Structure formats: C-alpha cells, structure tokens
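Friendly challenge for the regulars: who can give me the structure tokens for this chain first? No prize, just bragging rights.
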Amino acid sequence: MKNKEYKVLPRIKKYSEREGCFSFESLKVAISGDGELFLSSSAILMPDVKTERSRYRDANIRVSVSPDFSPYNEYCSLRITESFIEIHCRDKIGARNAVSVIAQLAKKTESGYVIDCAQIEDWPDAQYRACMVESSGRVWIPMDRIYRYIREMAMCRMNAFMFHFMESDGCTIPLKTVPELKGYGKENLQYTRKEVDAMIAYATSLGIRVIPFVEILTHITDIAMKLDIACPGDTEENLFAICLGQEKTFDAIDKVIGEIEEIFPDSVIHIGADEYDMSRYTKKIAYWDKCPHCRKLWEEKGFKSMREMYFYGLERINEIVNDHGRTMMIWNADLEPRNIPEWLDRNIIIQYYRYCYDLGKEDLYNLDINGYANDGYSVINSFSRMMYMHLPDLFMNSLRLYNWSYRTIPYVNPENYDNVPGGCMCIWEDWKHYKRTAYPAIVLVADRLWNSHTDTVTYDNAYGTAMTKLIFDGRLPEGTNVFACIGDVLPPLKDNVYGEPHKVTLSEDELIKTLNALISLGNDEMAEAYAEAIDWVIEQKRTK
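First reply, four minutes later:
Bragging rights claimed.
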C-alpha cells in the first residue's frame, strides 16, 4: 500500500485501488459550482490532453464543488471508474488539486492515457504551503524558469508563490514611482510589466497566489538613494535603512506601496524589514542614532533605543499598507517575543526564519515561534535550517526534511496551532546547484507540508521514481529514478558536488541508460543538469 501512496506526490491521504481502468484520449468536463480552476489547470498541467467543457450526460469528468463535501479546505475526492471520474471538491483549489492527482496518475498509451480505477480522498494538513523565489538586484531568474517553478508548485498542490524582486542593490520590476531604480547586473535587467502581469495570470490560473516581496524599511540602499529618503550623513557604504525622521519618507513609501497594489492583486505585501543592524560582520547599519531628523524624532517620542525606532518604522509602514487594503508580512529576526510593544499592531504576519539574532550590537535569543503566537501574531514557518536551500551544510537536506513539520521544528505548542498555518521554503540568491536542487526541494517540502500530521516518509526507490515522473512530466521511461543515480532525493547544495556516489548502488550500465534518457530530452535545462550530475557520479565511481 505504501507504494500506492507514492503514485502521487505529495502523498495522498486515502487511496483504495479497484479493478479496471479508466481510458481517455480527451477530457470532457461537466462542472457544478466554482470549478473553473479544473479547466485552467488542466490546460497547463496536462497540455497534451484536449480538455473541454461538456454537458453532464456527455462528460467523462464530473466536477462538483461545494463547501458541504468536507470540513477540510482544498479537499477533493475522486471516484475513478472505467467510464468516468467523479470529483467532489470543497472549494476551487480542491478542483486544481484533483487535476494534479489525475496528471500524476495518468499513464500514456499508444491511443491516449489510462488511470487505474480507485477511490481517493485528499486534503492538506498545512493551510499555507509556499515557495519564495528571489530575482532582484542581486540575482536574475529567467522568466521561463519562474514559470517552471510555479507549474511544479501547482503540480505539488502548493498555494502561494512569494516573489522577492526588490533588494538593497536593485529591483527587477520597473516602477513608475521610481523609474531610475537599477535592475540586475550591468545590463540593468528587468521584467516588463506585461511579463509580470502574464506571470501573475499564469499562477492564478493554477490556483497559486503571488505575494509581492519588497524591501521597504531595510535592505533598501538603492531605493533610499533614488527616492532621497536616506538619513542625511549616511553613506552608500553602510546605507541599509530608510530615514524615519522625515515625513517625505512615508509619503514616498505610500506611493511605492500604491503601485505594488496596482500590480499585485494579492491581499498580502511582504516588506522584509529585518537586519537593520548587521554591524558585527558588515558596515550595514541603520543611521537612526546619528541622523538629525531621527534624533529629533527620538527625543520627541522619548525613545530609548534603536529598537524602539524600528518598532515606530514598522507601525508607520503597516498603517500605509493597511490603508491600501493589504496585510503586511515581515521577517522575525528583529522582533523579540514578549518584548514587543503593545501599541504595535498584531495584524502583521510574521515569517519565522531565525531562532536567535546575533549579527548586530544587541543579541536577541529565544526567538521562540510560540512567543510570537502568544503575542497574538500569525506565523509562517520558514525556519532557515529546514526551509533555506542556498548554502551547503547549514540548511536544507533530505535528512532534515525526513521528519520536519511546520508544527514540530521548531516545536509549536498545541494551543498555538491556529496561529501557525503552514510554511514557506526559500530559494535565495544565485547558486548553480538550483538547476538540479530546486525542483526536488519543492516536491519534498510540499509533501511535508501536505502530510505534516502523519508519520515520517521513507525516501525509497518508489519515492524517487514518483519524483522523477513528476519533475520530468513523465518524459522519461516508466520506472526511471534519476535520484537513485545520484544517491539522494535532494542533491547536495553545492555548486561543484553533484551527488553522493558512495550511496549509488546501480551499475555503470544502469547509470548510462538513465544518462542517455536524459540526453534524449534535448535542450532542457533540468535534464542537462541531471545528465551532468550522473556523468560526474560515473567518473567518481570509476576513479574510486
């Protein structure tokens, strides 16, 4: 039965196989309720299958959407018979989830596709299942790769894409309010507004919300200079935070947030707002204690520390974000639970990534996830040792993900479950290994968020085979497991180490067979990355 679970990733909650199979060349879909996402998702997740709306009597797919079907959000059930598939969903995202299940179960035949008859019920444990991708002034991600990330997120039944496009040294989305903002690199690379609109529409058609992630309070060197909202006397060498003592700062931020609101329809705007003091290892530190405008404000408000200035900045920006009808999200690093002032609003969402902060002059320890929940905040678990994947050794690997849960690492007290709705993995900066590590990481994290309340998973051959089929869209021969060829379901997060040769038990002939299958896919970035990895493993085993 465990192998049946691995037919679909994330693993489905209930799967009961029945006799027979459902064969189809096209999908004729009858929909009752809000099930349009089934059609839009089918067009992207199953592009080779003609899908069209149909009358009920002619349909071979019958989709019904109603909150009465289940108490679980995103619930879907599939009754797969020899003649049709009957689908019940609680909501529209449940209809998208049903497409993911069908796309992964479908096996190609000479005349079309076939799916084993079964009864399936499925729903997520975590309500918030997200992936953050950075493409900002310090890294450029081609739009086609962003599309591929979003598509895989949808196939893995995630529901949020956090797009980090603004950093201290530039912004990859052109803003009319700050037209002189730098893009990426010497070429000042930026996406066009048309490209961004199309990307958001694409994600929306897959049931993925796109959350804009900008840097407004800190990490803001370029925009602070371009808008003239830096503290007088601050220099580009250490400029990292806006001036809080001038009203023109908040007027400028209001305009920027207004434009972000126009571009992104989502209800949340992430403003970053961390690391205003990193003086222990860089020269980057807020100038608030030296700026004449900030010092005047400091005295008027009776502030006693830089941290109180920081809280003031958060509250002012939160007011702006709220006035634009949005909810603000921030990082947790500079907020110490139990020492957050009562006047700072609790409608801010906290993205948790640090358990202590010791980069600045003031050490902050015991940044307990429960502390934020007890203080009244909603918290997204992005604990860096589990959810960050850019650096080797320090962060994500398959062994850590094996028993990770957004409620257990860090441990969430049961009374705080409602305040911690899920988690978000983070793809930061520019690492060559992403071409082979980002895609399996999305699968692994999505599975742990979907099945957080169940036993730990076994990353065996069946799991690797299912992952291979998912990330390569079934284009490799049935039963292929590329991860068995490199020794782990998540390759090492290193640019120059491509696998774990000592864990590979396949013969060289078997490795070469998979290598040739990857090469046969042609000009495909991910196939090329895995072919390179297997070639490296072969060479390492030969020279052992």
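The chain has 16 helices and 18 strands. The mean pLDDT is 95. Your move, everyone else.
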